[in-house]
Amino acid sequence: MKILYGYKNAEKNLAKPVLAIGIFDGIHLGHKRVIKRLLNDSSPGSDKVVVTFDPHPRTILFPKRVPPRIMSLEHRLSILEKMGVDAVIVIRFTEFIAKMSPEDFVKKILKGIGSEKVYIGSNFMFGHERGGDSKHFVQLGKKHGIIVKEVSPVKNGRKIISSTWLRDLISSGKIKKAEKLLRRPVSVLGTVVKGDQRGRELGIPTANIDPHHEIIPPPGVYAVIACFDGLLSKGVLNIGFKPTFYGRQIRRRKEPQIEVNIPGYDGDLYGKNMEIFFIKKIRSEKKFRNGDALKKRIKKDIEIATEILSNNDGVKKIVIYNPCL
User: Fold this and answer.
1) What is this structure's pTM?
2) Cis peptide leading into residue 55 (ω within 30°)
3) Bridge partner list, 3
4) How far is CA 173 from CA 167, 188, 217, 229, 241, in A?
5) Mean pLDDT of successive 10-residue segments in the chain (325 residues)?
6) Which residues make beta-bridge pairs with 236?
7) Using CA atoms, how far apart are residues 46 and 86, in angstroms rounded to an integer?
8) Full set of structural domains in the chain with CATH
9) Close Cβ partners of 280 (under 8 Å, ≥ 6 residues apart)
10) Number of neighbours of residue 313 by Cβ within 10 angstroms
């Protein structure tokens, strides 16, 4: 998959591109419907191209109300590649882009890319002060020789699936409900970094994960599947502030620590990217009277996680999704 940063030279690298435009934060079922319409497009000899924006437009438009990202750009790109997209154009969202009129957006960006067909969600808003909606886009498309295909939203029950809803579910710990909006378990992409070695001191080494500015579930212990080095590995993960060792002191940190134990793995993970899929919460974080009591409980958590992961629909979905390939 080609990754092109900026739109000015995109036409030179693409063949008769057909586009899908959106932020696609989370790549939930609504986003997937738009992208699948793109991938199923029958235009011969055309590159199937996703156009996305980074940072999130709210960073510029509403800087005091920027929502946490469900997925980093790197995470989105990884999933789009697995979906079979030919190319992604990443447009840096700036004041200049924000102030473009809807017509300039079509003339300067879409015409500049060289596309004659575009897929959008029905809630797509664009142009200065979000002055253009999907209906306006269709009209401008006709004016400038671009076919605009509006894709209807996906509902769960009577409610339209959205990134806002997904974000709220993850942050409140409702990971099974969030899984329904994704049709795969909630995941976080992060890099393994050096921690305080507490797990190693207990004889249960853990990998400390620095998430790529992605939203994470609330503190607690979770049964997880970790994807790294082309492998899917079962594990148990803790999100929290280590109250057994630090009491309330560590709560001065803005973010909790994330540690994952992969039973039986003893390789070097430092610096590696790891995608972690949350299957089920085992328990809430708690303070133990000492390290030995914590060690005993962690071993119990590993047993519980192993049992959960041995026969779980979420795990089966991950295997089908095959994120490590």
Assistant:
1) 0.89
2) yes
3) 88
4) 10, 14, 5, 28, 17
5) 92 93 95 97 94 89 85 94 96 91 90 93 82 87 94 95 96 96 94 74 81 91 93 92 60 72 88 94 86 85 93 71 59
6) 223, 261
7) 9
8) 2-160 (3.40.50.620), 185-321 (2.40.30.30)
9) 175, 176, 222, 223, 308, 312, 314
10) 11
